[in-house]
Design goal:
The chain has 215 residues and is of the alpha/beta class. It is built from six helices and six strands.
Length: 215
């Protein structure tokens, strides 16, 4: 949902959009078709950028289509259905690879396409890891925050790399009828998308290596 909302808002602001949808999330590619029907220049590819090969394939498609890249939003998310106590080693590693790899390998793969652009910007989207009851998933989200801050200091100075951490809504508890004790509302995808657009805009030039927490 966040990827769809970001794609929509970027396209409606005049950006050419390329969306990546791993096989498990290809239903979201429908959003790209909606953009195309609206007359915007959008492309969708069933590519998983969590590995080196997939990230390289994605970068090659962007280069073929446009020859450059100004903005990158990493918002793929993968959670295991198994509890920590019983998670298999392969699934444990899958959670780390699919979350950290998507942000790390794709960013590395497109750096050459962004290097000559005047104001390249990258935004990584995470779930606020303190809210996660899954230690493995929480570790992957914390790693994305670390990647964000490391990229912000290690990439050329014209790059701006920030993150948006979306908090999970609290569980209902006692006194839920009292407005002071009501759990927070779920953060809408459009609100997340607007925050991402701000970080991609010229209004956020002074922000680098920051994490905006929503919810």
């Amino acid at each position: 949902p966040i990827g769809r909302a970001v794609s929509m808002q970027l396209a409606l602001n005049g950006c050419f959009v390329v969306g990546l949808f791993p096989s498990a999330a290809r239903s979201e590619a429908v959003a790209m078709n909606e953009l195309t029907e609206l007359g915007t220049l959008a492309h969708a590819f069933g590519i998983d950028p969590a590995g080196e090969a997939g990230a390289a394939e994605a970068a090659a498609e962007v280069e073929r289509l446009f020859g450059r890249l100004d903005l990158l939003v990493n918002c793929l998310k993968y959670e295991s259905e198994s509890p920590f106590q019983t998670i298999a080693e392969s699934e444990f590693l899958d959670v780390l690879k699919k979350n950290i790899g998507a942000a790390g390998f794709l960013t590395r793969a497109v750096l050459d396409l962004m290097a000559d652009r005047p104001k390249p910007k990258i935004v990584n989207v995470t779930t606020a890891f303190a809210d996660s009851g899954d230690p493995v998933f929480a570790a992957s989200q914390a790693a994305i925050i670390s990647l964000t801050r490391s990229f912000a200091t290690s990439l050329p100075s014209k790059f701006r790399v920030n993150a948006v951490a979306v908090r999970a809504p609290a569980e209902s508890e006692e006194n839920e009828e009292d407005p002071l004790f009501r759990p927070q509302m779920k953060t809408a995808s459009d609100d997340v998308a607007r925050t991402i657009l701000f970080l991609l805009s010229s209004e956020s030039t002074l922000l680098n290596g920051e994490v905006v927490v929503l919810g």
